[in-house]
Amino acid sequence: MNSRNRITILLLQAAPYLLFVAILLVFGSLSDRFLSLANFTNIVIQAAPVAILAIGMTFVLLTAEIDLSVGAVMYLTGCILGLYLGGVPWPVGLVVVLAASALLGGINGALVAYLGITSFIATLGTLFIGRGIAMSVSNTASVYFPEAITSLNRATVLGIPSAIVAVAVVFAVAWVLLQQTPFGRQVYAVGQDRDAAAKAGLPAKRIVFFCFVISGALAGMAGFVSATQIGAITASYGLQAEFSAIAAAVLGGTSLFGGRGGVKGALFGALLIQTAANGLVIINANPYIYPLVTAGIIFIAVAVDGLRSRMLERLERRFIRPWEIA
Amino acid sequence: MQTVQRSSPPLLSVEGITKSFFGVRVLHGVSFELWPGEALGLLGENGSGKSTSMNILGGVHQPDGGRMSLGGVPYAPQSPREASRAGIAFIHQELNLFPNLSIEENLFITDFPKRSGVPFIDRRWMRKRARELLAEVDLDLPPTRLVGNLAQGERQLVEIAKALHADAKVLILDEPTTSLTRREVERLFAIVNRLKSRGVGIIFISHALEDVMHVCERMTVLRDGAVVGTDLRERLSLPGIISMMVGRSIDAIYPERSTGPREEVALRVRNLTQRGVANNISFDIRTGEVVGLSGLMGSGRSELARLIFGLDPLDSGTIEVAGTRLERPGPKASMAAGLAFLTEDRRNEGLLMDASIVDNIGLTFLKRFKVGPGVISGKALNTTAAELARMVHLSTDRVQETLAKHLSGGNQQKVVIAKWLLRRPKVFILDEPTRGIDVGAKQEVYRIINRLVEEGGAVFLISSEIEEVMGLSDRILTINKGEITGAFERSGFDREAILAAAMAPVGPKREAYA
């Protein structure tokens, strides 16, 4: 690798951080309320559901697959929680939500890993099925959450808001899983080259399957945290949440091509997106430009990922006259 | 051929292995033995059965007949994993490492050490063991370094360390030196010698005869799926090995051509250079001429074709088609100038499998059938496609209804050729035009090639089969490591000379081995 390539890759990797700094500078100069601890705490709380989704999405993206169904899973498990689990203690509700969403993720995983259906199509299918079931059980009416759940939003642990605690716990578990267990490291191997992984004797299909289970379960978790925050959901709940999650993960350096990235990046990406959204609200921007800003951020993330992957691929190239390549 | 008398039993013995693919027998009873602590060179032309033999040894394929034993017990691996458990490590040319993981993670990817009682990786133990393994292959790198940041030679040593971790008794190295620098090769040889002294048996497959002669005590030469001979290094010479390698039975008849090359030059290539790939390549192809390019695996055959056609950028050099220089080389300019390129990988590059024959033939050149802005004549397209299908002797004339995926390999190849013929190319570059197709279809491809040049075209024929190149070409060029190493006129065609030229050493002067 020569030094010019090295610098280009470093710049590409630094791009999201530079973007973050730029966002802080722009909104900070436009509003004095923006750069405050209270506002930042607010940003983190608001970013919690997307951050949790993005952490789950990271597992799937690392295996070079995609999960478009997470928003639908949020909506469906939210309906289950609001309609059928109103009377149970919240930990029971959470466990049921996690189990149901993990099951939905397992369906995705089975379709992709064992039946060989392209994940884009398989999860698009479960997206519509999930939304369809949710709309029919709720009659597309608003679903309200009981006080036992909404009160969690105001709860704190050692003075830290519950949403932040939830993100921290999810992050810590996911980080340990990816970095410190054989499963996690094998996820990276499978994402880099599934054939090579299978040839080396790794259970590649099982690994892909479990990544979808994790993504599904964390979609349920994200839905639960979001339920505590908003109190009621409608048929548009969770729409396009998958795109925010993918954007957050990719912004944080996880490649759509598999094998590269991690959950730290997902956390960063979710914060970046929420910071931009928060800034737009604070400066009273026209709501119609929000999607344009989000789209711009997604575009940058994906472009950087594509450029970097192409570059890395070129660097991996082998030469028949190696002595000419210093 | 004398055999070597030894008192100890062999580490590995292979007896009478046979194997057929789709009814074609590729191995006719391969036998050889490997003793602990020796390196056996496995030599043979492309397609002689080296890879198949080694894939059977490595558990990738299962033999149809014959016996193998490893360390005195019968050995019949059903999968690469079983082979590796039995102590056979196969290091492929394409290394099986994950560049996004660290060295230590690559070493332990299938069997991470865990801390007692918890499912977490014992990083400390892993690092310690990785250091030991790296020390055994003389690789002074931190085990936490990403494999993606290693040079090719370093990666190979990591693969060898992985083999040591798996406690390999037999190490198969497939073309280990092709993409290594001189210094890396020397380091590899030092490690190979060290492993030998520890009793590991090495099978060394390579086209680089000098390397094989240097590191191997014995050589086995394969030809046409059978062993031609095995002997000690001292009793073999380079010319002797080459004459053992050539002389495959001829299974094809090459049709006669009624015309010969004309005066005018159809393709003129001058000083073509791309760093790391091709160096200062110059040659001409005249109208009505077939020029063959012969080279071994990794010689840069296909890379040269891609450079000429403009798929990869040039560092320097010029290309002229029928006297017109390509000013801005690229596939579009090449096609406009009259170049056609049949790639070696028709499944991925040449054909739309779910489209009809007509669509496959016409799709890349629809403007020929244009009758108005944005409108084409479907009738003209169908007629022309049917004509071309007849010309290439396609098995079916239902060109509108038949999808490409329903055709045999040979007929698919003919569709790709027809697609290019639509453009009436002046120079047709054919990269492995008969790979993987049956004998009958090969014959027809040969006839198409003849017809092309008889009608005033020119052909640049790339093939790994020396016989094919000899049977069809007016002239033959040999290539090795991106350099032209020889040129032969038809009257001077000689298999041994051509193979020797294709194997001629290229690159920085190799020092005499100590």
Question: Could you explain the architecture of this structure?
Answer:
The complex is a heterodimer of chains A (326) and B (514). The mean pLDDT of chain A is 89. In chain A, α7 crosses α8. Chain A has a single domain, classed as ABC transporter involved in vitamin B12 uptake, BtuC (Orthogonal Bundle). The radius of gyration of chain A is 20 Å and the shape is globular. Chain A contains 13 helices and four strands. By secondary structure, chain A is an all-alpha fold. Chain B has helices spanning 50-57, 80-86, 103-107, 123-136, 152-165, 182-197, 209-215, 238-245, 301-309, 331-337, 346-350, 357-362, 378-391, 409-421, 439-454, 466-472, 495-502; strands at 12-21, 24-34, 39-43, 65-70, 73-74, 88-91, 170-174, 201-205, 218-223, 226-232, 265-274, 278-286, 290-294, 316-321, 324-325, 339-342, 370-372, 375-376, 427-431, 458-463, 475-480, 483-489. In chain B, β11 (265-274) and β12 form a beta hairpin. In chain B, 32% of the residues lie in helices and 25% in strands.
Structural class of chain B: alpha/beta
The portion of residues assigned to helices of chain A is over 70%
Distance between the termini of chain B: 29 Å
Count structural domains of chain A.
1
Q: Give a short account of the largest sheet of chain B.
A: 6 strands, mixed
Biggest sheet layout of chain A = 2 strands, antiparallel
Can you tell me the CATH topology of the largest domain in chain B? Rossmann fold
State the CATH superfamily name of the largest domain in chain B.
Answer: P-loop containing nucleotide triphosphate hydrolases
Radius of gyration of chain A: 20 Å
Shape label of chain B = globular
Average pLDDT level of chain B: 86
Supply Rg of chain B.
Answer: 26 Å
Global morphology of chain A = globular
The largest chain-to-chain contact, stated as pair and per-chain residue counts, equals: A-B, 31 and 38 residues
Low-confidence stretches of chain B at least 5 residues in length (pLDDT < 50)?
none
Please write the string of helix (H) and strand (E) elements of chain A: HHHHHEHEEHHHHEHHH
Strand order of the largest sheet of chain B: 6-7-8-3-9-10
The percentage of residues in β strands of chain A lies in under 5%
